[in-house]
Automatic annotation (TrEMBL):
Domain named Proline dehydrogenase: residues: 47-301
Highest taxon listed in the record's lineage: Bacteria
Name under which the protein is recorded: Proline dehydrogenase 1
PANTHER family: PROLINE DEHYDROGENASE 1, MITOCHONDRIAL (PTHR13914:SF0), PROLINE OXIDASE (PTHR13914)
Encoding gene (name): fadM
Keyword Oxidoreductase included in the entry's annotation: yes
EC number: 1.5.5.2
Source organism per UniProt: Paenibacillus solanacearum
Entry cofactors: FAD
Length: 306
């Protein structure tokens, strides 16, 4: 990554957490171009998009957007929105699960209350036989997020997994432990700004650890989601699995709504498990800016089509 691109990405990531910028962006709604990456502002809009993806043999992980709440009432409202999301998925008979962020449930405000919200959601999902993924946020919340998942499992709530980010130096150790505990994982490269002391700063290092994580999980037989749009990583994974005789039912590819749609459809048609991460809701701004930061070409696409 050249210096200009790095500075551009850092600036966007700073803006992702800027509430003044978020408030300004909200006035324009999805007209800024976020509609490419966000499935709508309402649950109804999102459910319609999920059904269309299912029609193409693509499963869904639905995310009611929101993070870093400042009041307990916000967390409670998000928890209720997830209950409605789970009911909507069940009522429509969709092939879908949900993802949620711990800070959205108030982790930074009241960890015990946040855990209670998450536990209620996971229990309700279990009633509908749906899966919950606890998203991984930036590094200050890594240990707490893993602790939440482990505690849920000890309570018998095993229909829940989490995410490991390949750019964090600790992730291989976390992967080994979670694999022994048979926790379902989504593997990603990572989209937050982290210090070089805890995160690999170079793409080649991130890619190498990503492959090591994938290899370890595929060899283990514990179900794994490989979340990437990197065609080279996808091809490497398919070749490795074929060479080792690993069944396609042991893993799936996950990609973002509005990104690499043709690739998603092709893999699904070839018989691979594919799941699309479908975000929706009023709090779309931080998510949108992180998508722009991941790939500067997305910015030029938005400007060209605005």
């Amino acid at each position: 990554m050249d210096l200009g691109t790095k500075l551009f990405r850092q600036t966007l990531l700073l803006l992702a957490g800027n509430r003044a910028a978020a408030a300004a962006a909200q006035r324009y709604g999805l007209k800024l171009g976020a509609g490419r990456f966000v499935a709508g502002l309402t649950l109804s809009e999102a459910l319609t998009e999920m059904a269309e993806l299912n029609r193409k043999r693509i499963a869904v992980t639905a995310d009611h957007l929101g993070e870093g709440v400042r009041e307990s009432a916000e967390a409670s409202a998000y928890a209720e929105a997830y209950m409605q999301l789970l009911d909507g998925i069940h009522d429509r008979g969709l092939d879908a699960g949900v993802s949620l962020k711990p800070t959205q449930m108030g982790l930074a405000l009241d960890p015990e209350a946040a855990y209670a919200h998450i536990r209620d959601i996971v229990r309700h999902a279990g009633e509908h036989r749906l899966f919950v993924c606890i998203d991984m946020e930036n590094s200050p919340f890594t240990d707490a997020t893993l602790a939440i998942v482990r505690k849920l499992h000890t309570e018998g709530l095993t229909g829940v997994g989490t995410v490991l980010q390949a750019y964090l130096r600790r992730s291989m150790d976390d992967c080994r432990r979670l694999t022994q505990e048979r926790v379902v994982l989504r593997l990603v490269k990572g989209a937050y700004q982290e210090a070089p002391s805890i995160a690999y700063p170079h793409k080649r290092e991130v890619d190498e650890q990503f492959k090591q994580l994938i290899r370890h999980r595929l060899d283990s037989g514990v179900f794994t989601a490989i979340a990437t749009h990197d065609a080279a990583i996808i091809d490497w994974t398919c070749a490795y699995a074929a060479r080792k005789g690993i069944q396609r039912s042991a893993y799936e590819f996950q990609m973002l709504y509005g990104v690499a749609s043709t690739l998603q459809e092709r893999l699904a048609q070839e018989g691979y498990g594919v799941r699309c991460y479908v975000p929706y809701g009023q709090s779309w701004y931080p998510y949108f800016v992180r998508r722009l930061a991941e790939r500067p070409a997305n910015v030029w696409f938005i400007l060209k089509n605005w």
